[in-house]
Amino acid sequence: MVSFSPEYIKYLKETYPDRSYLGVPKYKCQYCNAIFWFEEHNKKHQKHDGNQITYSNCCKYGSIKIPAFRQPPDFLFTLLNDKENSMSKHFITRIRQYNSLFAFTSMGGNIDKKLNRGEGPYVFRVNGQIHHHIGSLLPQKDTIPKFAQLYIFYKKNEIQNRIRALTNEETEETDIDPYIVQELKKMLDKHNPLVKVFRHARDLFEKYKGIDISIRIIGANKDDPIQFQMPHTDELAMLIVGDLNLENYKRDVIVSNKTRGLQRISIFHPAYMPLQYPLLFPYGERGFQLGITYDNQQKSSNKKRKRNKLTIHEYFKYHMHFRPNQPNPYLCYGRLSKQAIVDARAMEDEDRLMFIAKTQSKLRAEYIQGIFDAIEKGLSEGNQIGKRVLLPSSHTGCRRYVLQNYHDGIAICRVYGPPHLFITFTCNPKWPEISLAILPGEQPNDRPDIIVRVFHMKLQQLLNDLRSGCIFGPVLAILYSIEFQKRGLPHVHILLWLDRENNEITPEIIDKWISVEIPNPRKDLLGYILIAEHMVHGPCGDKNFNCPCMKKGKCSKFYPKDFENETYFTDIGFTRYRRRDTGIYIRRDNHNLDNRWIVLHNLYLLKRYQAHINVEFVNKSRLLKYLCKYVNKGPDHANIIFERIK
Ligand SMILES: [Zn+2]
Ligand SMILES: [Zn+2]
Predict the structure, then answer these.
(1) pLDDT at res. 645
(2) What confidence score (pLDDT) does residue 17 get?
(3) What is the C-alpha separation between 300 and 138, in angstroms, rounded?
(4) How many CA atoms lie within 13 Å of 224's alpha carbon, on the beta-carbon side?
(5) Would you place residue 548 in the very low, low, confident or very high pLDDT band (cuts 50, 70, 90)?
(6) Is residue 310 a contact partner of residue 292, using CB atoms and an 8 Å limit?
(7) Angstrom distance (rounded) from CA 610 to CA 600
(8) Model pTM score
């Protein structure tokens, strides 16, 4: 086989006339400077600003105003941005460990540590709720100081003690550079108002032995500005000497030297994030708090809003947008940003769930349904039902949500019969839209915001293509579900109902739609290259026993398949696709892989989207329920078992 230079391959891909290409995110929100792609502009609200292209997902036409983050202090700034430097590289891959060295609070939650074994980009995943806890100022007798206590307990050898405390907590990484720790400590001592208060407490403890001290980390007041340009120490936290009456400080967090066990920090406390992420918020920048109002000057319409305060969702949505020349701790600090995004999302979920729990009495209809459900389960007496919190189907991911979607799918099948095509479309992290949008030195995986936005736009394009009828003919219905792979890349499963009007689907039609053969590279080089990149299975079996598809010594997807001279339907209703022995093969891992290793695809869609797109004809014999379930299988559930202790 002849080989071609990467430049030529790139040229071929870029010059395919029907290629889907969204360009670079060169448009800017006129209010907040968030960048966006042309495809993302608000199509419905174009009238709103004359001919100007608008986008509202960032700041709702300027009604959300949040001051920009300041550039981090010099030492941290260089570590974060000088990506060629070996110390920076070391720091960026271990930024979570360096942050834990200085965190005031411990993060409780079920963190999945197994996920990152082996190769592949880093993924931060938690199961269930996240809590941030803070202990007392001084450790209990005979225990090792942790987290906030480290700011107080050691004056000598603080660096070594911090590193030792970390290696007790985290077993993942232990090669911490004491010089970086030393410099970060200096930096936080100088800039972080929370650190300053804790240091002050340390000095007082030293001076007056046995003194009673509390630190009050101040909660939100109604009229607070959202962030302080230059926060004064006493606006974030203050020292209180002697006893205090807790009743007066309900919104605050009080940390005292008397042991009160671990305290949970409320997600609405403005110091929730800065206490956990001192490296993301080196100036102790305050996070979300209740009561931030919309900016009234930019009233977009005359419509009266029901609500005039920012929600936690809107707050984080604002920060999940990249703005040129503005540091963004939620997007640009590698693994620590990923952790912060997951944390933010968990805050949002907690906020929603708390709202649902509080407004149960208003959810009348759901209530009644709950009683019916209980009776169905055989609970006939009122006291057996107990006090449950019901999640309405509008809460994404809950049981009712999944069930409702599943029933919608079954309803479509009842009207239109079984679907015709099953399409799986996977995000390609090498898409030029992604590589052009990330910053120099970043990997696609470092920017989940870019990945999901590009994938969403491409998916909308694909759905429009399908709806237009140009590819598989007129369409009756489409059902799809987006999932995230283990490593964080999104993919979508699509079920397609075609408008066939008594028109049987014959093997000839299937051959037009679906191919499983490698094109001749002399005639269709682009097709050959794309199939080699995206549509080859394995190698698995005796060529590679470690392939993820291998289950009990066999390929779970039944590769390699047999050669077939033509497409036909088997007696039990399976489709065998035309897979001829053409002698053309693709070289991978020292094996020649021929047509028996190719995954079902549509060559036009493959060339247009240049990603893994699997297109399969759905056979009627397949269980409908299985397909709908596959499309709506919902998230993984946690199982809780109550047992009586004997
Ligand atoms: Zn904006
Ligand atoms: Zn296999």
Answers:
(1) 40
(2) 94
(3) 52
(4) 20
(5) confident
(6) yes
(7) 15
(8) 0.85
Separation of alpha carbons 352 and 396, rounded Å: 11
Tell me what pLDDT residue 418 has.
81
pLDDT interval class at 640 (50, 70, 90): very low
Distance 31 CA to ligand 1 centre (A): 5
Which alpha helices (DSSP H) does 252-333 contain, by range?
272-276, 312-319
For tokens 């190698």, the residue is 539
Three-class HEC string of 565-617? CCCEECCCCCEECCECCCCCCEEECCEEECHHHECCECHHHHHHHCCCEEEEE
SS3 515: strand
Give dist(CA 517, CA 579) in Å, integer: 6
Chain segment 252-281, per-residue pLDDT in tens: 777 777 666 778 888 888 888 999 999 999
Q: How far is the CA of 583 from the centre of ligand 2 (A)?
A: 21
Each residue's pLDDT tens digit, 159-173? 777 787 777 665 555
How many Å separate Cα 170 from the centre of its chain? 23
Task: State the amino acid at position 521 in one-letter form.
Answer: P
Positive or negative torsion for Cα 306, 309, 315, 318: positive
- The CA R_g of the chain, rounded to the nearest whole Å, is 29
d(CA 74, CA 80): 10
What spacing in Å lies between the alpha carbon of 311 and ligand 1's midpoint?
16
* Paired residues of 132 in beta bridges: 107
Cα 545 to ligand 2 centre (Å):
9
Please report the sign of the dihedral spanned by the C-alpha atoms of residue 298, residue 303, residue 306, residue 312: negative
For 593-603, the pLDDT digits (tens) are: 999 999 999 99
Q: What's the CA-to-centroid distance between 298 and ligand 1, angstroms?
A: 12
Tell me the ligand closest to 298's alpha carbon.
1
**Does residue 51 have a pLDDT over 70?**
no
Q: How far is the CA of 167 from the centre of ligand 2 (A)?
A: 40
Residue 136: how many other CB atoms lie within 10 Å: 19
pLDDT bucket at 230, cuts 50 / 70 / 90:
very low
Centre a 10 Å sphere on the Cβ of residue 356 and count the other Cβ atoms it contains. Answer: 19
If one compares 436 and 127, the residue with the highest pLDDT of the two is 436
Per-chain residues with Cβ under 5 A from ion ligand 2:
538, 540, 549, 555, 559
